[in-house]
Each structure stands twice: as C-alpha cells, then as structure tokens.
C-alpha cells in the first residue's frame, strides 16, 4: 500500500493523500519473509478473462505475537516465530520448520528455520509458504468453567485471487424446502438429492435421508 496525492473533488484547492494498492513482484526468499504481511498472493502465468494473473492469496487471521527476543541464545530454536509468513523454495532437505529435538537443546538446535531463508530466487519455482498462526490467551474469570472460542480462533485463509472470472458461489444450490408429502429423492423437488450425479468434482455423498 502506498499513498498518492490527489485533488479533493469537493474542495479543488485542497489535496488529499489516498491509499493505493501497488503490485510488486518478490524475487527472493529474503524479500518474501514477513513479520506482519498485509497482502500477498501467489500468481500463475495464466490470466483470467479480465486480464489479471490468476492466483491465490494468503490471508492470516491471527497472530501469536513475539515469543522471545531475537537476541536470546535460545531464539534460533524457534526462529520460525520471527515470521508470520515466509516463502521459500521447496527442498527435500527442508521438510519441517522445527524439530522435536530442539526442545532438548535450544542453544544448538537440530533445525534452525532462519537458515532456510538465504536469498535464493523464488521466481518460477516450487514454493512453500510457512505460516505462523496463534494467539495470546491471558486467563480471566470468564474462562470458568470453560474457555470460550469466540475471539480465540487461529488460522489463515487460502483465497482465490483473480483465479476465477466471477464469484463461483453463484452456481451453488439454493435452499430447499419440501413437505413430508413430497418425494425428497426427486430432483425437481430436492436438487441436492441429485447433486453427486450432476457435479463430477464432488465426492460421493451418502444417500440423502429425511425423517419427516
């Protein structure tokens, strides 16, 4: 995101700074290692009908925050925590970001994730996105008798970004209403009953049942 100067339409003698989304290609692992990424997507060489590169965006929905200071002698054992998102070239010798043995000797870790990021090119390569998701939970009285999940969720979303020509959900089936007198196995009454027959990309669903 960058700011650009523009003339205020409602007050021509004034200028405003408005945010603008700019596109930047990241060529190396060092450029693609982030502590707090804003908007990152993996683009393919093909384009959609609008002329935009098809791809997928990674949207992180939670952050664990800082673990220990980077200057700590034990930090290399969990150096994956430096980055909320890091993209590296896929290598057979880099299967995991850490090792169970790191906890036994964190001062000389078996696997140091920071070593994975060594400024290699990532353009037109098989890539791995290393994502750190988590949250800090501070106990409070409302945790009794159990901790609620609202506000305590972790994860990320892998979202299509210019991958489709339009919103694919418009092809989803609408809600279905039928009465006990109707045949719920008939496609004209219940389109969902025939969905596995009409959509070859869907898994085999168990037979649709209705207890009346």
What would your notes on this structure say?
The termini are far apart. The chain has one helix at residues 195-198, and strands at residues 2-8, 11-20, 33-34, 40-47, 53-60, 85-89, 127-131, 156-161. The chain has a 3-stranded antiparallel β-sheet with strand order 3-6-7, with no helix packed on it. 2% of the residues lie in helices and 24% in strands. With 212 residues, the protein is mostly beta strands. The radius of gyration is 25 Å and the shape is extended. Keywords: Copper, Metal-binding, Oxidoreductase, TPQ.
Question: In a nutshell, what does this entry contain?
Answer:
The chain is mostly beta strands and 212 residues long. The protein has one helix at 195-198; strands at residues 2-8, 11-20, 33-34, 40-47, 53-60, 85-89, 127-131, 156-161.
List keywords for this structure.
mainly beta, 3-stranded antiparallel beta sheet, 1 helix, Cu_amine_oxidase_C
List the helices and strands and how they pair.
Blueprint: E1 2-8, E2 11-20, E3 33-34, E4 40-47, E5 53-60, E6 85-89, E7 127-131, E8 156-161, H1 195-198
Antiparallel strand pairs: 1-2, 3-6, 4-5, 5-8, 6-7
H-E string: EEEEEEEEH
Low-pLDDT parts are: none
**What portion of residues is helical?**
under 10%
Q: Span between N and C termini? A: 55 Å
Give the tally of β-strands.
Answer: 8
How would you state the average pLDDT, rounded?
A: 87
Secondary structural class: mainly beta
State which percent range the strand residues make up: 15-25%
Largest beta sheet, briefly?
A: 3 strands, antiparallel
Strand order in space, largest sheet: 3-6-7
Radius of gyration: 25 Å
Tell me the overall shape.
Answer: extended
User: How many helix segments?
Assistant: 1
């Amino acid at each position: 995101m960058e700011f650009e100067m523009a003339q205020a339409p409602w007050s021509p003698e004034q200028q405003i700074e408005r945010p603008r989304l700019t596109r930047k290609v990241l060529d190396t692992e060092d450029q693609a290692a982030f502590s707090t990424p804003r908007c990152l997507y993996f683009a393919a060489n093909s384009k959609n009908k609008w002329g935009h590169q098809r791809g997928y965006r990674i949207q992180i929905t939670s952050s664990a925050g800082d673990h220990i200071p980077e200057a700590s002698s034990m930090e290399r054992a969990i150096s994956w925590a430096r980055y909320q998102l890091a993209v590296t070239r896929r290598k057979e010798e880099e299967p995991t970001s850490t090792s169970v043995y790191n906890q036994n000797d964190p001062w000389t870790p078996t696997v140091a994730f920071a070593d994975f990021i060594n400024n290699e090119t990532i353009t037109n390569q098989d890539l791995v996105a290393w994502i750190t998701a988590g949250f800090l939970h501070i106990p409070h009285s409302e945790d009794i008798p159990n901790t609620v999940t609202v506000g305590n969720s972790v994860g990320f979303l892998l979202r299509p970004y210019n991958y489709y020509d339009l919103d694919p959900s418009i092809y989803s089936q609408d809600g279905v209403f039928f009465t006990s007198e109707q045949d719920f196995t008939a496609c004209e009454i219940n389109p969902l009953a025939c969905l596995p027959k009409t959509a070859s990309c869907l898994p085999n669903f168990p037979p649709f049942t209705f207890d009346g």
